[in-house]
Amino acid sequence: MKKVFILLALKYYILNSIIRNGENLYKKIVIPTDGSDVSLEAAKHAINIAKEFDAEVYAIYVVDVSPFVGLPAEGSWELISELLKEEGQEALKKVKKMAEEWGVKIHTEMLEGVPANEIVEFAEKKKADLIVMGTTGKTGLERILLGSVAERVIKNAHCPVLVVKKPKKE
Question: Is the dihedral of CA 71, 76, 78, 84 positive or negative?
Answer without folding.
Answer: negative
